[in-house]
Model the fold of this input.
Amino acid sequence: MKNFIISTCCVLIFSIFSIQAAMPNEGSDSKNIEKNKKVNAKCHVVLVDGSEAIIFYRIKVEKFSKLANKIVGKRVLTQKSTKKIKVYQVYECVLKEDDFTSPNSQFLDKKTER
Done:
């Protein structure tokens, strides 16, 4: 009888822990969704040929803060040419919905076709 009670308690405790482990953790799922979320960004850049352009990107949220440094030296397509041109300098990167802080960037953004 004593062995039966001990084995029943062990089975009960095991089932409680296994149910708890099988339940989804809501907090970690929302963090993964936020981490994998992508945003639209735009950058005011100077190209190697001396022209300025607004370049659009779709990147993960956590990579947005490093975007300006990552694109310097990369080859990009512009609306004016069919060939890729290297980025020489980045003035500013913002989310697509936001406005640039520089008046020159704002003017170029308004001129850029979408």
